[in-house]
Every structure is written in structure tokens, then in C-alpha cells.
Design goal:
The structure is a homodimer.
Chain A (H helix, E strand, L loop, with lengths): L3 E8 L10 H16 L6 E5 L3 H5 L4 H8 L7 E5 L4 H14 L5 E9 L6 H6 L14 H16 L3 H15 L13 H6 L2 E3 L2 E2 L8 E10 H7 L4 E10 L14 H14 L8 E3 L5 H10 L8 H6 L17 H5 L3 H16 L13 E8 L4 E9 L1
Parallel strand pairs in A: 2-3, 2-4, 9-10
Antiparallel strand pairs in A: 1-7, 1-8, 4-7, 5-6, 8-11, 10-11
Helix pairs in contact in A: 4-14, 7-11
């Protein structure tokens, strides 16, 4: 396997992009990435998207985007793993370059969620249609069950959940591409509308439109394009039961802990070697559980860790979601995994502006689908 | 790159499988393939599916199927390229094994189309939503335009189109997994209901449920499992404009001719070296155009070739769609590309029963999405 580098990145602002179609959004992100990388062609491309059929009535996204990007006749493949579609897109591109099959590959992700589709219904297709959705469960409901179990088992407090959202909005206020760039308070979170007890509106990531893309190539040729290629040190994908009721525990996401174990082995790194991380905070509880399952904190300590500032940009031993995370940056589901990679790329190049993590050498991105039935972890390093 | 072999295959019967869910269908096919191969594990799996969200309200198919197949925590990736989703699934699995990333990979495809969704609407998401579908065009309409152009330019006759359906039903009558196992006559095709002038009901592939799966591994270890591994000699994927109106010609599918050129170069084979082929006959005209674009016949000669029996199982110099093709075997869109591979696998092993092509050493499978905006060609050989 060849060493692989990220040499360019581009994304749209995340938010309600009513004057842009799904094509406009993807092409904007992809052209920015191509320009940033300085490449004059790509050999292949991946498009991560969860449910463009249900959201905007358009499948066949690989072909659609290759066409509108002016890239025919290259192979263009749409991959889907619910909210982990972006992470999977990156991983496929990584292996395509690592294997020597292609030289320069674009990994992108896109979702257009605000065009009138029934968003909660469309997102519910990431859960078990027969055994969960049919009973009326939605994603806030599934994560609320995880929250209640975690609060019961580990005495995680309501205020600790709120602290995740407050931190991520503080980070997002410094990100020009974030959907919400306003800071919020613990009190505002606690007083926001109840969505699925105990989760409130400000515990939940928003509905968003957005696109993101990165360019990968072998480290060998990366140096032709940039002095600061960012190395992809490892990529792991796992699966777990689709339905919550099939799991032995509600307070651990096994797809995440298994993927973490595998990627630390693959990269010969330990949790303490990670300088900062982007994790999948679709709901505040998710960041807490994932930060434990990645080994950053002991099981059950995720809530107090965020409360004590251990994950903050300013004081944290492991800053988490410096981009603002899904909560503040926005969560156009198919684009999220790639946007996480872009945050790693900018931080590792020292170009994250007001969000810059000091001494950022190793970054980890964790992206997951549904209630954790799929998970992708990628680790990038400055060289 | 390592040499790759197919060592097992399994599929459901194609048809209206009202008593089976999408999970039942995929798992049945996958278990048959695993049993046929005799493997005790798989390292990774791909699920090709076009629009499970619109058809049955279930996305996240990789994770769903890994779970129901009892394969957690392996990586499980859903890929989509409209009706070429199965071909893309096979190609991704092929490269995953060829690169040495994984040892044993399952490539599957599935679609459940008869559960009440608006099928024509769902299929239309493979076309350009903004410029084609919004104007009211459907797939029979798009292929009718191609038919009219071909009839105008090359004097292709209505009876020649009918001959495709008649031949494919004759082949399908010998396939126990085919949806339609009845022979039809030219006259029946010509008298069937008009769908989109000049295409009639019996020119169109049906709406189907079905699943298909194959097992791939490196040739090195293939010999542990079987005495007759089938070699994957090459795999190519291409893209073309999503909308028909953007193309310079309506009578050539450029994604197909480009892919053909690339795969003959990759495998060092010529059209004359191919002993038989499965091609994407979603409509009768498609088989005619594709048989020309693959180089089996001169441009414009596809219609007379089928009429003269050049593509028949019994007398053809290049038997096409010995399985019955999409027309008679059925077309559960995500499964079709894998089912084509299964026909190659059975023919090359000499296990195709009454459909057996004599001296079948090299088989080609051509699968495409939409009106040809994506195309995958795979070549398999007996060793």
C-alpha cells in the first residue's frame, strides 16, 4: 500500500442554501477542492450522500456530479452509509489511491435537506425500518434512550449534555462555514423546547444543506502540488446491529469502540497521541459516548470531561469538534464525514484561524451512521 | 495488483416476492453465495442498491445487511449507480481484493420494487431531475427517443426490436431463476400495449424483486475452496452526461463505447475474443445499441444481427443474454449487475444447464445506469 496524502479541500457554507441545487452545492465544493489542490485532472471520484432520492428526487449522484463537474468519462461512485456516507466516501478514495489503482481521487459528500422533504422520515430510513421505524421511533427518540441509559448508569447530568452544545457553538462561532455562528449558554440549552426527553432542541444537530470535498493522491506525487501535504495514517470502517434493541449495551457504541481498537492498532497510536478530534455529535449524548469509546476518557467520564473543559479548544487536553461539530457547523448528512476531514486538514496545516489548536500534529475524525450501526474513523497527520 | 477469482454465487429467483422483505431477499442470496464458495467468513461486503429509500423506506443498507447476515463488525458499504449499482458493487469488491486490502469479499445487490412505491417515479431519479424528469420524461420515454433516432439513422426495424425480446424470453425459459419463463413471439411483442412509441410492453424489462451475491478472493487462496475458480480479467467503470440532450449522438452510448475500449485494452482482448455476453437490455433497443458499442457488430448492424440469429444461444457467433437478460430474467435494479456476473460464473464453469454456451471461456458483463450515464464492464474467464 502506498502512503496517501490529502492535498486540497473545499466546502460550501453549511445552512439553508435555498438558492442552490444539490448539483450547485456539490460542484461548488468540488471546484474549491480542485483549485486548492492545484490539480488539472482527477482520475476517479466518490460522492457520499445518504438519501438524495428522498430529499430531492435525484439518485445516480456519481454520474450526475461527474457530468456537472465536467469530469466525464471518469468513474464516479456514490456511496451511502446513512450519516457516515462522507466518511465512507473518504475511505474508498483512500484505498483507491493507496492500492495504486488511481493517482488522484476526489472524495466528496453532499446533502440537500431543506427542499421540502419530510426530513425526520427520511432520516429514519437509517434505522431498522421493520422493527424500529414501524413502531414510530425517530432519531431523537433513539438517542434519548441512549441518553437515559447513560444518565442512569453513569450519573451523567443534564448540564453536562448542555455543555457539549455550548462548547460546540463557541467553536462554531469562529468557523466562517458554520450554519450557526452564535454562542449559547447552558441555561438556553436547558430552556429550549423538549424534543425527546431528556433531549432538547439545542442538544440536536440541525437540518442542513451543504457539500464538502477533498483531493487525495499518493505522497510521492503530493509534493508536486504542495509543501504541506497531510498524511492519511489510517482508515477503519465497522458495522454493528442496525437496531438498538439488539445490542448488549445502550451506553457503548460497539461500532465505535471496535473501530477505535482497530485504528490504534493500524496506526500504532494510542488515544493519548491524538491532539484533537472531530466526532459525530448528532446529539449531545453522542459526543459524550463517542469520546469515551475512542478511549479519550474512562467509560462514564465523558460528561464530566466536557463539563471540566477537557475537550475545549481553549483548555482541553483533547479539543473535540473545534469546527463547531455537527451541532453548530451543521449536519448535511452526506457531507459531514468529509467536512470533518477538512477540519483536520486545516488544523494540521495551521490554517484554522481563530480555531487553531496549538501543536496540532495528529487529528482523528469519527463519523457514524444511524444510532451507530456503521462507523468510520480516519486519522490524519502533519508530516 | 493480485489476480482475483469468483469462487461462489447465489441468487433468489427474480419476480414478485411479496412474502419476502428486502432483508430476506439479500440474506437468502448472500447465504447461498457463502455456502457455494465454502468460506467460513468474509472480510468486507458491498451492497448495490439503487433506491431502497424510495422503494421500501430503508437506507443504510450496508449496515442493515451485515447485521442480518450475522457479519458485524465487518465493513459493509452500500454503493449506488442507478441500475448499474450491482456492477459497481462487483467492481469495488474486485479492487478491494486485487489491492490486497481484504482476502474474501462479498459483492451483492438487491432491490425490492413491488412493495407499493411509485416505481416509475423512483426509477426516474436515475435521470436528470431538473432538466428531464421535471419535464415529465420517464425511462420508457428516454429509450423511445433513442429507438426513434436509431430507426431513423440506421433503418432499424420494429421487428428487429421484437427479436431481442423473443430471443431473451427463449433463453429465460431455460433459467429457473427467471421472472418470466414463457416464450413469446414477434407477433405478441408487436401487438402488446404501446408504452412510449415505438416501444411496447414486451420491449420493456419488468418491475422485479430480487437479490444476488458473489464471493471474490485472490486466485492464490481460491484454489483452497474450488477446483474451478473463475478469473476476473478486468473491470472498468465510466460516466457520461446524465441528460440525453447533452450528448452529441443519441444512437451511441458513449459510456459504453469508452468502457469497451478501456476494458479491451486492460485485458488485451478484442471483441472477437468474447465467447458470450450479458448486456443491459432494460429496453430492447438498449441491447441493440450496446451490442454495437461493445464492438460485436458494426454501428447500425445490431438490429439485423439479432434478427439473423447472430446473438442467439443456439446459432450465434456471440450469444447475448443467455440468462434471459433483464427482459425475461427480471430487473431488480440493484441486483442486476451481480446477476449478470452469476450467469458468467455458471457458464464459465459449464453449469448453465440447458442454457450452456459451448466452449465458453471468456464472458463479458455490461451493466449501465439510467440512459447510459454510468457503465460498468467486467470480463471473467475460465482458467
Amino acid at each position: 500500500m502506498k502512503e496517501v496524502a490529502v492535498i486540497g479541500a473545499g466546502m460550501t457554507r453549511f445552512g439553508e442554501l435555498w438558492n442552490k441545487s444539490i448539483k450547485d452545492i456539490f460542484v461548488e465544493a468540488a471546484l474549491k477542492a480542485i483549485k486548492d489542490a492545484g490539480v488539472d485532472h482527477i482520475d476517479s471520484m466518490y460522492v457520499g450522500s445518504m438519501s438524495s432520492g428522498l430529499f430531492v428526487g435525484q439518485e445516480h449522484l456519481g454520474a450526475v456530479m461527474a457530468d456537472y463537474l465536467g469530469m466525464n468519462p471518469i468513474p464516479a461512485t456514490r456511496v451511502e452509509s446513512a450519516c457516515a456516507s462522507g466518511g465512507v466516501s473518504f475511505r474508498q478514495a483512500y484505498f483507491e489511491v493507496a492500492s495504486g489503482q488511481s493517482e488522484i481521487v476526489l472524495a466528496g459528500g453532499v446533502e440537500k435537506m431543506t427542499d421540502g422533504a419530510d426530513v425526520t422520515d427520511a432520516l429514519a430510513t437509517a434505522a431498522d425500518q421493520e422493527y424500529e421505524v414501524y413502531q414510530g421511533i425517530t432519531f431523537p427518540g433513539l438517542y434519548a434512550m441512549i441518553t437515559n441509559a447513560h444518565m442512569h448508569q453513569y450519573k451523567t447530568k443534564r448540564e453536562q449534555l448542555a455543555a457539549v452544545a455550548v462548547k460546540n457553538h463557541r467553536n462554531g462561532s469562529k468557523n466562517p462555514n458554520a450554519q450557526f455562528r452564535s454562542e449559547i449558554t447552558i441555561d438556553q440549552v436547558l430552556r429550549s423546547s423538549l424534543v425527546a426527553d431528556p433531549l432538547r432542541l439545542l442538544d440536536c444537530s440541525p437540518v442542513s444543506d451543504g457539500g464538502a470535498a477533498v483531493i487525495l493522491c499518493s505522497m510521492e506525487i503530493a509534493k508536486k502540488f504542495t509543501d504541506t501535504p497531510i498524511r492519511v495514517s489510517g482508515s477503519v470502517q465497522t458495522s454493528d446491529t442496525i437496531a438498538l434493541h439488539s445490542r448488549s449495551s445502550l451506553t457503548t457504541l460497539k461500532a465505535v469502540s471496535t473501530a477505535a481498537e482497530k485504528i490504534y492498532k493500524m496506526t500504532n497510536l494510542k488515544p493519548q497521541d491524538i491532539d484533537f478530534a472531530e466526532v459525530h455529535d448528532c446529539f449531545s449524548i453522542a459526543e459524550i459516548v463517542v469520546s469515551e469509546d475512542l478511549g479519550f476518557f474512562d467509560k462514564g467520564r465523558g460528561g464530566s470531561a466536557v463539563e471540566e473543559g477537557s475537550t475545549s479548544l481553549e483548555t482541553g487536553k483533547i479539543p473535540i469538534n473545534t469546527s463547531g461539530g455537527l451541532k453548530s457547523k451543521g449536519h448535511p448528512v452526506g457531507a459531514t464525514g468529509i467536512a470533518q476531514i477538512i477540519e483536520l486538514y486545516e488544523q494540521l496545516q495551521g490554517k484554522a484561524g481563530k480555531r487553531q489548536v496549538k501543536n496540532a500534529h495528529v487529528g482523528l475524525a469519527q463519523n457514524m451512521g444511524g444510532s451507530g450501526a456503521s462507523c468510520v474513523i480516519n486519522i490524519l497527520e502533519a508530516i
